[in-house]
Specification:
Layout: H1 15-47, H2 51-86, H3 91-118, H4 120-127, H5 133-165, H6 170-174, H7 178-194, H8 197-220, H9 231-263, H10 269-305, H11 307-344, H12 351-365, H13 368-383, H14 389-419, H15 421-443
Length: 448
C-alpha cells in the first residue's frame, strides 16, 4: 500500500500528503493509460483501419462519453457529500448515501445507453454517412453490448468516490488498466468466434472486474449496501451533482466545437487538430486525475470544518500548479516536432504535416497552467457548494471558445483554434476564483 493510501484519518491532509497522493495517482494513471496503447497495437495488427474497427470505435465513443459526463461529475459531487454524511463516525449513513448514489448513476447511464443503442440505426447514418449498412449494423449490435460496459464503468466510478473519500487513492487510479487488457486478450483469444465484438465483450468483462475490485475494497472499509438514505443527505448530493453535471456537459462540448470549426478551414485542418490534440489531451487527463483526486478529500474536510484554511491552501496550490505547469509548456514547445515525427511521420504523413501538427500541439499545450488551475478551482467551488458559479464558468468557457476560435483562426488558421484554449481557460479560472472570493467574503464575520 502506498503512502497516499496510508494517510491518517485526522482532518486535513497536509500539502506534502496531497503532493504524494498526486504523484501516486499520476504514475498509476500513466500505467493504466499505457494499457490502451497495447490494445490499439493489437487492434491495428489484426484489423488495420478496416470497417470493423470503425464500427467498434463508434460503439465505444458514446458509452465512454456517458460514463465521463454522468459518473465523472458524480464522483466530484459524492466525495464532499459522503464526508458530510460520515461526520461523527456514522459510516452506516455514508453507506446508504453511497448505495443510493451508485444506483442513480447506474440507472441514468443504463437509460441513456439503451436509448443510444435503440436509436442508433436512425442517427448513425447521419453521423457517419460514409459507413456501409453492414458497418452501421455492426456498430449498433456492439452498442447494445457496450451498454453493460457503461453501467459497470459508472459503478466503478461510484466505488472510486468511496475510496477517494477514505483517501485510498491507488486502487481507483490503477484499476482502469484491466479493461484495455481484457479487450486485447479477448480479441486475441476469441477473434475467430466473436469477431470484432470480442472487443466489446472484453470491455464489459474488464469494467466488471474493475467495479468488483473497487466495490470490494469499499466493502472492506465498512461500506455495506443500504437503502435507508436520509432525504437530507440525498438532497445534498443531488444539489452538488446537478451543477457539476451541467458544467461537465458544457465543457465536454469545447473539443467538439474545435473540431467543427476546424472543418470550416478545409481538408486536413480537422485531422491536424485531432493529431495535435491527442497527446495534449492524454497529458491533461493525467493532470486532471492526479490534481483533482488528490485535493478533493482535503478540500472537502476543510470546507466542513475550517473554510478559512481552504481559502489559504487554495491560493498556495494555485501558485504551485501554475509554476509547475509553465515548464511543461516549454517542454511541449521544444519536443513537439520530434515527437510528432517519431509517432506519425511515415507513409502519407509528410514532413510538412509534422510541422503543422507540432505547431497545433504546442499551441494546445499553452492551456496547461490555466487548465490545471481550473481543475483545482472547480473542486474548491464544488466542496463549498457554489452551485451557481460552476455552470456559469463552464458557459463562459463555451462562449469564449467559439468567439476566440473565430477570431484566432482568421489569423493563424487551425493553430489559432488550438491557441484559443489558453485564454478561454484563463478567463474561466478567473470567474471561478472570483466566485470563491465572494463566498469567502460572505463567510467572514462582520465587525459592528
Amino acid at each position: 500500500m502506498s503512502q497516499a493510501d496510508e494517510a491518517p484519518a485526522a482532518s486535513g491532509m497536509d500539502d506534502r500528503a496531497i503532493a504524494r497522493a498526486g504523484a501516486t495517482i499520476a504514475i498509476l494513471s500513466v500505467v493504466a493509460k499505457s494499457s490502451a496503447f497495447l490494445r490499439e497495437a493489437v487492434i491495428a495488427m489484426l484489423y488495420g483501419r478496416g470497417p470493423e474497427v470503425d464500427a467498434f470505435f463508434v460503439a465505444l465513443a458514446l458509452p465512454v462519453f456517458l460514463v465521463q459526463i454522468v459518473a465523472g461529475s458524480f464522483q466530484i459531487a459524492a466525495i464532499p457529500a459522503l464526508l458530510a454524511a460520515k461526520r461523527g463516525g456514522d459510516r452506516r449513513r455514508a453507506s446508504a448515501l453511497a448505495t443510493s448514489g451508485a444506483g442513480i448513476v447506474a440507472g441514468v447511464i443504463a437509460g441513456a445507453a439503451i436509448l443510444c443503442a435503440a436509436f442508433a440505426p436512425l442517427y448513425l447514418p447521419a453521423v457517419a454517412p460514409g459507413y456501409s449498412a453492414r458497418t452501421i449494423t455492426l456498430a449498433t449490435d456492439m452498442l447494445w453490448i457496450m451498454s453493460l460496459f457503461a453501467v459497470m464503468g459508472g459503478l466503478a466510478y461510484a466505488g472510486g468516490a468511496v475510496l477517494t473519500a477514505e483517501r485510498r487513492f491507488a486502487l481507483p487510479a490503477i484499476a482502469p488498466v484491466l479493461t484495455p487488457l481484457a479487450m486485447a486478450l479477448l480479441l486475441i483469444g476469441f477473434r475467430d468466434s466473436l469477431g470484432v465484438s470480442a472487443l466489446a465483450w472484453g470491455a464489459v468483462i474488464g469494467t466488471l472486474a474493475e467495479a468488483a475490485i473497487v466495490l470490494s475494497a469499499a466493502r472492506r472499509l465498512g461500506y455495506r449496501p443500504a437503502v435507508s438514505v436520509s432525504r437530507a443527505d440525498l438532497a445534498d448530493l443531488l444539489r452538488r451533482w446537478g451543477p457539476l453535471f451541467l458544467a461537465t456537459l458544457l465543457l465536454s462540448g469545447a473539443g467538439l466545437i474545435d473540431q467543427l470549426m476546424a472543418a470550416r478551414l478545409g481538408e486536413g485542418a480537422a485531422s491536424a487538430l485531432g493529431y495535435g490534440a491527442k497527446l495534449v489531451l492524454a497529458g491533461l487527463h493525467v493532470v486532471t486525475t492526479a490534481l483533482g483526486i488528490s485535493v478533493l478529500p482535503a478540500y472537502a474536510e476543510n470546507a466542513l470544518e475550517d473554510p478559512a484554511r481552504l481559502f489559504s491552501r487554495l491560493r498556495r496550490h494555485l501558485v504551485a500548479v501554475i509554476l509547475l505547469a509553465i515548464p511543461g509548456v516549454g517542454i511541449a514547445w521544444l519536443l513537439s516536432e520530434p515527437v510528432i515525427a517519431l509517432l506519425y511521420q511515415r507513409g502519407a504523413f509528410t514532413a510538412e504535416d509534422t510541422k503543422l501538427v507540432a505547431q497545433v500541439l504546442s499551441a494546445y499545450a499553452t492551456q496547461l497552467p490555466a487548465f490545471a488551475a481550473v481543475v483545482i478551482l472547480v473542486r474548491a467551488a464544488a466542496v463549498l457548494n457554489l452551485g451557481g458559479v460552476i455552470p456559469v464558468a463552464a458557459a463562459v468557457n463555451i462562449v469564449l471558445t467559439i468567439a476566440l476560435n473565430a477570431l484566432f483562426m482568421r489569423y493563424w488558421g487551425v493553430v489559432g483554434i488550438a491557441l484559443a484554449t489558453a485564454p478561454a481557460f484563463a478567463v474561466t479560472g478567473a470567474v471561478l476564483y472570483l466566485g470563491i472570493l465572494r463566498d469567502q467574503g460572505r463567510r467572514k464575520p462582520t465587525v459592528s
